[in-house]
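Hello everyone,

My group is preparing for a crystallization screen and wants a predicted model to guide construct design. The compound we'll soak is zinc ion. Before spending weeks at the bench, it would help to have a computed complex in hand. I've included the protein sequence and the ligand's SMILES below. Output in structure-token form would be ideal because that's what our pipeline reads.
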Amino acid sequence: MMRLIGKIVLTTFILLGLSNCSDQKVNEEITNNPDQVDTIIDQTTYLYGIPVDSFKVVGDKVKKNQFFSQILIQYGINYATIDKMAREGKEIFDVRRLRAGRSYTVFTTNDSLETAQIVIYEINKIEYVVYDLRDTLKIYRAKKPVTVETKTASGVITSSLYLTLEQQGYNPELAIVLSEIYAWSIDFYHIQKNDKFKVIYEETMVEGESVGIKRIKSAYFEHFKKPYYAIQFTQNKNLGYYDEENRGLRRQFLKAPVKFSRISSRFSYKRFHPVQKRNKAHLGTDYAAPKGTPIYSTANGIITHAKYSKYNGNYVKVKHNSVYTTQYLHMSKIKRGIRPSVRVKQGDVIGFVGSTGLATGPHVCYRFWKNGKQVDPYRQKLPKSEPIKKANLKKYEKIKKVMVTELQGIKYPSL
Ligand SMILES: [Zn+2]
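Reply:
Good plan to model first. Here are the tokens for the complex, ready for your pipeline.
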């Protein structure tokens, strides 16, 4: 019965999905006459590089709590062989790491015996392990052909960037990559309805399915009706993004110490304290985010404090240079290894959002010192990164022109 179900599933799989993963081999033979080209097309269908014609192909997806042996016994593979497959293949793939929902395929003899010949398990979207049971057991890992496609996306924000991309059928990972590029210039906590974006990017594809965003080549973001360009360019061997005025997008400080949160309280000299119930200066910016959300150091620096105190709870303080220091309060946990004198880079995780110390709910209170005085980071004219160097200007201008023209040619989806 299980065999039959497996077969039905696989037949459907072949009908729907095989056209994508079959590779037709085209052999071109040039004869003596240079004008006469014989093209021999091999019509064989391949699955995992194996010609399917010579086998019966069955398979399914791993079910919840299903073991390697439970699967294989259904296909008439005896326990001794299963044990050998698991043992000899341990270094290549540990069968205890089988995951529900992943696909497996069994190639059997094309006769009434249907003896299992080859077993394939998909470790992830790209890699798979092959157990070749013909003659002596051979076990190896292989990869599906990966292609990189240049694509474009555009949209008008209705709720969040992530949802807008997802609703239009794009890989929503694009939202994360975009927000990283713009982390220094656009406040994603104040993203507006009707903000617009256009992006040219490279996507990694396997069998017609997206497995990830490789990189963004260029992007245009319209925020509060203001244009923000991001054009990729390599300068001093460093890949970076630059704007239409040849300035770098990366600033000395990140806009915020957490991603995708909201500001729940701004820096002010007079604010009603929700816990102490009195007016008190709030010399920080509070970002409300779920407990456990990673907190990033907003710039490169050296840890000066990483400890617990009654009011601050678990907190970390980072000295960036002789002028700037930042502090992050109320962490549920300080990241392991974060202690005084440790160097951190911009974007490194230093702890996790919590509500330790004097706090009503999970948030991070972000404090910013300039020359020993607490200031509002959003009112500071913070230094920008290096612009395009003179020597690279001609080259950048050329790329910029092509990219801006391409971006302008992308249309927004009609709502
Ligand atoms: Zn605060």
